[in-house]
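Appendix B, example 12.
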Amino acid sequence: MSETPQATAPAVPPLVVNIQYIKDLSFEVPGAPAIYTTLKAAPRVDINLDVQARRLQDGQNVFEVTLATRAEAFEPTTNGGSTQGPRVFLAELAYAGVVTLTGVPENTIEPILLVEVPRILFPFARNILADVSRDGGFPPVLLQPIDFLALWQSRRQQGAAPVA
């Protein structure tokens, strides 16, 4: 007689993305509608990106991770870039995810939240920013891949506050 194997509970993954969402989105074109007829070349776009993480409730391993992106476009200057042209548009996106960590060692929580989770969220935020800038009448802003590990390491060297 063979014994039936005991049913084992499925393993709980160490990282679960519960939900992803747009926390805040703003797109401004201060010179509209004139900018659409006066802009002669693709605008210069400056990108700033920040990652923030916070514990949602004390004693629980549920966190909100937010990618905060700011894309500010300016008219290209004809003098070689020594001065900044007028602002063409400003796009600000806060794209967030709520994640649950299970059985994760304490010393790996920060890198998971500030490196691995942003890697998951980034493609979605990148698409939203490209779509909103294109839908705003401009060439899509295509964010280049981000090295979140290097970003996290540089923040640690600067003494940034750890995840609360």
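The two ends are 56 Å apart (CA to CA). The beta strands are 15-28, 44-55, 62-74, 87-101.
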